[in-house]
Amino acid sequence: MTDLTMSPAPARPARSLVTGVLPGFGLAFGWTLVWLSFIVLLPLAALAWKASGLGIDGFVALLASPRVRAALELSFGAALIAALINAVFGVLVAWVLTRYRFPGRSLVDAAVDLPFALPTAVAGITLAALFARNGWLGGLLAPLGIEVAYSRAGVVVALVFVGLPFVVRTVQPLLADFDREVEEAAATLGASRAATVFRVLLPPLVPAALTGFTLAFARGVGEYGSIVFIAGNMPGVTEIAPLLVVIKLEEFDYVGATGIAVVMLAVSFALLFAINALQHWTEKRW
Amino acid sequence: MATGETFPLDPPRPRALPVPPPIGETAMARRLLVAAAVLFLALILALPLAGVFTEGLRKGWGAWLAAFADPDARAAIRLTLLVAAISVPANLVFGVAAAWAITRFSFPGRNLLVTLIDLPFSVSPVVSGLVFVLLFGANGLVGPFLKAQGIQVIFAVPGLVLATIFVTFPFVARELIPIMQAQGAADEEAALTLGASGWTIFTRVTLPNIKWGLLYGVLLCNARAMGEFGAVSVVSGHIRGLTNTVPLQVEILYNEYDFVGAFAIASALAVLALVTLVLKTFLEWRYGDELARSARH
């Protein structure tokens, strides 16, 4: 993730694996390892252990179950749509926030982080109330025949809310660091403004937007709190994968819950890996 | 800045220069883009936020206050404060230790360690709770053993604390690592050559250098710890007055169609989120240079 280049002075004997002159390595490293193992690695190992009880056949059977399939498809599909919406509007918001001055800009900038700060359950019940038939937005949409609450559209709406900051915050710093000279050069060479924007300014943003998109997607696949209130949770229709994990757990079907969890986990780790590769590629290229 | 006195929410961002007309968009295009972005954010952010308070105050302040007089609500608030009071310091100590080991020493597997610390962020909240049920539940790996010793983890406070620590695990560490990396070890090494002890170096040299970043990490960690829903929902068991944290209490009230009560409690969480945002924005504005901007997520 972070590029870690080391501070100077390997003052210890060359055969030591640890270099650094300051005291406290044993304590700091030891505590890090103990805490990491106890809180993160051991519990995740328990997951792997339980999943191994499922076996390949059990795993295939689980994934073949229509309810599980529908839940996974909904979680991945809705996360994908929401991440796409966020990619477009995220770049727009980042662009507007870094390039233009308008009244309330700083307030808007700070507000972008609201989905990170607002507990998901709060977001969930508010969105459900807003889009219910007697809600502010649901009331407007109902005459048009659009149902958001208790439908798949509701899942997407909740995920757009939750994923919004990811694209904005990954694109924003890049946009702020752009050299004015580049677009000035494009303009003096006779490029139209549209050509400058689409062929000079936006292409370098693609990797960052893609990273933000992936982060929002990964978050969306696992999201639970903001969705369960607005989705309606109908098995096979509006039931998301994390909810099915909870339901299986409440039915004491630990193995089934673990199987779904493993699928979700495998995808998020693959995405994490993709993001790292993307950033590596970006650093090389730009 | 036009005005001398600045409001925390209005930080100057000198890097974001307005693009003058010759190479910028036309005024019309600019206005349209701003309008589109602001409209989108108003729909997706401002409306839900306004909704929490409107619904919570639907029946007036009396009903709003009454929601907090309920003993179950009070127990939930106490429990959330307790869980945060344990998990935030735990992750603070871990974050400092991890950052010290990772940025002040070189050892094999360091990059792997950094990746592993970030792992909980890519785990679904529900799965974060599930792993502790698999470990400490009645049919779990060590659950039966602990039960024989009279220790209950799942459906009890320890489970809530563990799940909360898991989901907030990376916050402090990922804020400190880039800061301490950027600062380098020169200050501490100078102190060492002058004969300072390890503890003195840490408290008199390192801590003053990282204090704002530390506070920033703790702030985000705390917001998540108090607002976490999915992970604690799995391990809590939803026992009223005993294992319900504030977000879980909101869920229970909402599912019982006590909307005013649910939104009243939810509005308290929304206030917490707003306070967090204001403090966070203030820290970014005032001490931006001492924060790990790249690690903002």
Short description:
The complex is a heterodimer of chains A (286) and B (297). Chain A is mainly alpha-helical. Chain A has helices at residues 25-52, 55-64, 66-99, 105-111, 114-117, 120-131, 136-141, 152-176, 180-188, 193-201, 206-222, 225-231, 241-250, 254-285.
Describe the structure.
The complex is a heterodimer of chains A (about 290) and B (about 300). With about 290 residues, chain A is an all-alpha fold. Chain A has helices spanning about 25-50, 55-65, 65-100, 105-110, 115, 120-130, 135-140, 150-175, 180-190, 195-200, 205-220, 225-230, 240-250, 255-285. Chain A has one domain: Orthogonal Bundle (MetI-like fold). The longest helix of chain A has about 35 residues, at about 65-100. With about 300 residues, chain B is mainly alpha-helical. Chain B has 2 domains: about 1-55, no CATH class; about 60-295, MetI-like fold, CATH 1.10.3720.10. Chain B is about 70% helix and about 0% strand. In chain B, helix 2 crosses helix 13 (about 260-285). Chain B starts with about 25 loop residues before the first helix and ends in a 10-residue tail after the last helix. Classes of the chains: A mainly alpha (about 290), B mainly alpha (about 300). At the A-B interface, helix 1, helix 3, helix 4, helix 5 and helix 6 of A face helix 1, helix 3, helix 4, helix 5 and helix 7 of B.
